[in-house]
Amino acid sequence: MRLRLWVIVFCSFGLLFGVGISQSAASVPDARLVVSDVSVEPTSPSADERITVAFTLENSAGSASGIDIESVELAERSRFGETYGEAENLGSLSPGDEVTLDFPASFDDSGAYDLELQIEGTDEGGSAVSITRPISVDVGTADPDIAVNAERIHMIETDDGVEVGGVDELLGAGGDDEPEPTAAIEVSVSNFGSATARDVYVNASGESENYTRLPVSDVSPNSTETAVFETDQFDADETLTFEAAYRLSTDSPESERQLTTTTYEYRPGADSLVLTDMELEYDGDRLLLTGNAGNIGETKLKSTVVAVGQAANVTPSAPQRDYFVGTIPESDFVTFDLMATIDDDTTPETIPVDVQYRADGVQYEQTIEVPYDEPAADTDGDSSVFVSGVALSGLLIVGTGGYLWRRRQHASN
Known about the structure:
The protein is built from 3 helices and 23 strands. With 413 residues, it is of the alpha+beta class. It has 3 domains: 111 residues, C2 domain (Immunoglobulin-like), CATH 2.60.40; 121 residues, Immunoglobulin-like (Sandwich); 99 residues, Immunoglobulin-like. The strands form 6 sheets. A 4-stranded antiparallel beta sheet has the order 4-3-6-7, with no helix packed on it. Strands 9-8-10-13 form a 4-stranded antiparallel beta sheet. The chain has a 4-stranded antiparallel beta sheet with strand order 12-11-14-15, with no helix packed on it. Strand 3 and strand 4 form a beta hairpin.
């Protein structure tokens, strides 16, 4: 009897255990979901700004069943947390299939949000299938903090596109046949706020006219985008205004753009050339001017020419009426020689020297008045005086020697 009783008890437990196993196996869904490539755009939204949550959903190839995706939610990870975005009836996935989905969400207040992506579905057997994926979103305020800055740069076109940098960096960048670096003004738009600046453009204007308007990529928080303006469009020596117009990511497309401006004193090369160490001397009846053409600016001077200017009592004289200096690097100089004829009836106060050069693609012309200090007697006259003096000294030496020789001869007699 006892043995039979134990058998009955053992069988009863076995039946219960088997039922438990069967029920446990039946609770495992036949569809297995995998979530990947989750992204949030923009990455740092502002309060009230709509974001887009995108992700890839896959029904694993090892699944035994297809699945109907019933809902997707972006909600707080707490059990009774708030939902910030959701979508329903997103279609079906067979085993091995995947799909990229996205849906909108928004936040009323700024702050750090600890969220999760919650995906619910049903397999072909009617069993519920769910999967979650944690997401953190930092929501900021929409206060604007946009700064604009302009600075002078150089750029050069190469086979790989346009390169920007200093002149020394750019020389040699494009091979032996590369063009000279050209100057430009680079305007940077920096975003120090928490909302993205969108639909940005930069407008350039001078004292009397508007110049180019260039678009700029959206400027996300803690980033900078730039626009490059070639200087050949600007008038020489003027105050330029660069105005950045933009909308914050929280603004509606119909709202007016907000503005931030900066000014830039454009002085590419005016008065950059000076004449130093000037010396005046006569070469026969012509006046020889020798000196240095120096570049005191921050721009390389190109195609530089110096020439004797026209005046009432000064005439350029061959063979050095003018002198091609060529290129003068920053903080450097080149020596030159000029010749002029001075009217004998008058003494000029200055000798006009005309200079021409190019800087940043702009042609400059100016006249520099060189003070006229009466040169010493011409070199031919000095030589004549020197020769006469030497001859006279020779005669005195010869005469004195003859006198002493005759006295000696007389004494000996």
